[in-house]
Amino acid sequence: xxxxxxxxxxxxxxxxxxxxxxxxxxxxxxxxxxxxxxxxxxxxxxxxxxxxxxxxxxxxxxxxxxxxxxxxxxxxxxxxxxxxxxxxxxxxxxxxxxxxxxxxxxxxxxxxxxxxxxxxxxxxxxxxxxxxxxxxxxxxxxxxxxxxxxxxxxxxxxxxxxxxxxxxxxxxxxxxxx
Length: 178
Hints:
mainly beta, 13 strands
């Protein structure tokens, strides 16, 4: 087998591969993968027991605001249901799970009593317009680009501290005005 390749289609001129160039390209690729690795591996997820908490986030609050919302998804990889029973955070005096609903054109928001079930093999999504975390009595504003910790307590899996990422006031849903 020949150690030649053609570098340009139709040129008819054989090209001998340069081992140093190939080694440099391989080293560059390895370095790129190594540098990309930590970011690829550090997704904004947290685990406790069979539960996986994905992308806890909050909207930035204006100065003087006394409340903020929190959102995340919990996936139950287990064969038994679990229940989110409480939430606490140093950013606020009190934290509760609330449900927002619109009925006959009227929006209502109320605390959820008894926690929220995460079905076996299922998901629970806390999102704007539905179930969400209410942080009341904010001790300081939630500023875009910052994080704050909160502890989620589940009936079976126990407690886990997660980091909420503070996104823009539009919560990452900035509108395209084109």
